What does this fold into?
Amino acid sequence: MERSRLLSLAHLWAAFLCFLPATGLGLWQLLMRSPLPVPVDDPNAYYASLTAHGSIMAYVFPTLFIMGFGYAIAVSALGRPLRGENWAWAGFVLCVVGSLMALAPIAGGRSSILYTFYPPMVGNVWYYLGVAVVIIGSYFWVALMLINFAAWKRENPGKPVPLAMFAITTCALLWGWTALGATSEVVFQILPVSLGWRHTIDAGLARTLFSMTLHAIVYFWLIPAYVAFYTLMPQAAGGRLYSDTMGRIAFVLFLVFSIPVGMHHLFMDPEHGSGFKFVHSLLTFIVALPTLLTVFTITATLEIAGRARGGKGLLGWIRALPWNEPMVLSVALALLLLAPGGFGGLINMSYAMNAMIHNTSWVTAHFHLIFGGVVVIMYMAIGYELWPRLTGRPLITKRAACVQLWLWFWGMLIMTVPWHIAGLMGQPRRYAIFDYTDPGVAKMAWLDILSVVGGVILVCSAALFFYVLARSSLASAAESISPIRYALAVNPPARVHPLLNGFMFWNVLLLALVLITYGYPVGQFFFLHNQDAPEHSLTREMKR
Amino acid sequence: MAELLNNEGASGLIPEETVERTERRWLFAMATVLGLMLAVVVFTGVTQMMNPLSDVETINPATLHLQGEFVESNLGTAVETDGSITLRFLAEQYTFVPQCAVVPAGTLIRFRLTSPDVTHGFFVGTTNTNAMVVPGYVTNVMARFEHPGTYTMPCDEFCGFGHHAMAASVVVVPKEQFTKLRPEERITTCGAQ
Amino acid sequence: MEEEHHYSSASEPERVSPSISRSAALEALKNGPRGALVIAATAVGLLLVGWLLFYFVVFLTRGAVG
It folds into this structure.
């Protein structure tokens, strides 16, 4: 069994333990906003639920999962014990404590500000402190990834860092940089107000600082899924990775271009000019490149496996692939979801075209499809892959795992496709209830009902996922569980260019780009006048 | 030992170079596709003025009720000397003020919105008139509605517990009909449309 | 299985997954990744066509921006 397995297992258990109820909240929310009857028909509860659902799904679940996966990679790919394991446990505890701190006021209805917490709306101070503590805990992970990466390089001079470790360290570095945006907003702007030291807040600056995190966080979530694409799938499919080098290039491109695109979330905002909005749009086109590269490299990798298994003809290799392997099935399903998900993203980022769908249900559909779909389905597959190695017990069934993945795939499509359509028809987002007696709204009723059907399938899938892992944990220990092993490339490089083996240069480039793309947009706020808005405490509003 | 270092494959080509060449060609193709989209975006941005809102203008949210452009008597539809329309709304929890405004079709309309409290948003029907309203800033959006009708203008950013009940109406009437309206009728006739 | 450079996959050779031999992989690739090119190019082509359709048929017809 793996070293530090308990550490990784604790992280993954915590992640999945909060994921499951969060999906349940999501289903309740779908019912609320549909014409169907729903228990606890209370709009205030909807916004509290939405805050919990978003905060768990954006800040708690993926962070814990990625940390756990990262530690597992560090010990298995680098072949040595984790340096700083006690610190890792400390970070885990911080994440759990922070999550509970943040969730408590939400559950009490005292911080229904949504996971984007746009000031001058101000929620409960424990929410912000909780989120800050989670981020601090995650920074322990960031530091440990970098420390273990650097230590291995020192001990193995001139050798290529194993791709999985290179990639997850890129992920850690990206998170380390990008979290500073939202953290600055919380520490310098929101907490002073929340603690009563200040009473006004520049909402434009707050939104801009938050945007520095808001996009790159999705690449923080995405990179681990791509790690599975590049380093866990090829051997599960029975083949080799098409190109190790292109993998490294893709991860480096994510590191450099994920942050200086954040203002594409502010296209429709009044506090910035179209010049910088265009710059961010341009860079977002560039950050689409590593995904487009990955799509080709990974499909080619699947093809190698299929042909090696006897597939013939232009597309006959598809059928030859081992579709009963969760890691193979999940990658194919993820790629299928990436098509419409990426399409939505291309629409959103195209500068003025953003006006067509801004803050409609289209946006909600997009990020559920791309994150809830593409990324989470891979998290589930990674869960199945890691579980036997962390628990020492075999997975009770691959068949149920594959059924679960198919359910997640269909559920996600059935939930999000109607949302896209409703968005184009003019349905605003973040609505607790709709007035279906209004003829304009009534036209969307069937779409909202369809989304509920999708949500039901998703919750069943999530429950099945949890069940498979839980039952497998209770199976009898097996002696011969193979350790985590990583894919071989077609042409495994003996040496890798230093630029694809380290981050010094990319850090400098990243900082330069952030300065260029955010320097003026953030700096301008310190020279504008009169824009500070009085705080608007949500807790006070409730007492009225 | 030579096998370890020899990258030659069965076909005699050096496969890593082949792989790299294929990947490079794919990268070039992808950059071209993205470049084409970008070109369309730039072209329509320049020639059809399809750009997101751009003027950064601040305003004090605490005093805008008392004086200046956004006092209640100055809200709603205003006709400028050049015939264009300025449409001013306040976005506040949980209503737009005014709740309804009449504007002429086929005319340049300058939306100006701000908020005295929290961040809101708005869009008009299924047009591209869509923007955030952030307290401390004035939102300037240009629009032109060709088709008469009543357009719902919901708030599209979470602004508190009443967010889902917040919407205004923009009533677009033919130009001739609009010119016959007295200024106060641009609001009073609104609900009757 | 022939011993190969393993560091790009994992630090210890035992941590590299046994998979097909390099010659088998090259054999699979002897005509290049044609299938992948067709699938990926078709997908991106559809995305481009879809984007253009949305841009000119849905977006521009909805009126001015900004």
Summary: The CA atoms of residues 35 and 437 of chain A lie 10 Å apart.
